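Shipment paperwork, digital attachment
Item: protein structure file
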Amino acid sequence: PGQYVLSASTTLLKPNGDRTIPSRFWAETAIVSDGNDIENLQLVLLPGIAISGRVGIDGESSPGVGLLSTVRVRLKALDSTPAGLVASVTPARDGTFSIPGVAPGRYVIEGLLLPPSDQRFFVKSVQYEQALHPAEVLVVSTSTSQIADLFVTLSEHMGEIAGTVTDNEGRP
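Attachment content:
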């Protein structure tokens, strides 16, 4: 007995010319159980949405191609989502990226550099729908058909914390 959320997801291959493209589908429904069997439950799988945008580096009008080839944009699920996934993509030379098949949920957008880069970056801001979102949490709802023109600004200008750890008597 209790209240539950039943989720399902799958990836189907769809033909596209001479190749196949994976497409993600999801379904979700709330269930209240009184301890008896639930029969004839049907879930309708819906296509995930596409999230697309561009990555920029704070203070650079056009980041070098070499730098963008080491950048990854990651989408990490904050909640239990049907896909329960972490999507990770490398932007194109011009900084554009696309993440297909995202199920509804709350996600954190992360930017990171792959080795051999010794630079460190963090997500400074995320902008979409003409609004700036300093927190990098992106909400995808069931009414969302797509999120386009997402702009992710990465910055290497991080703050630092300095100090000394001491014991209860004040000794380092």
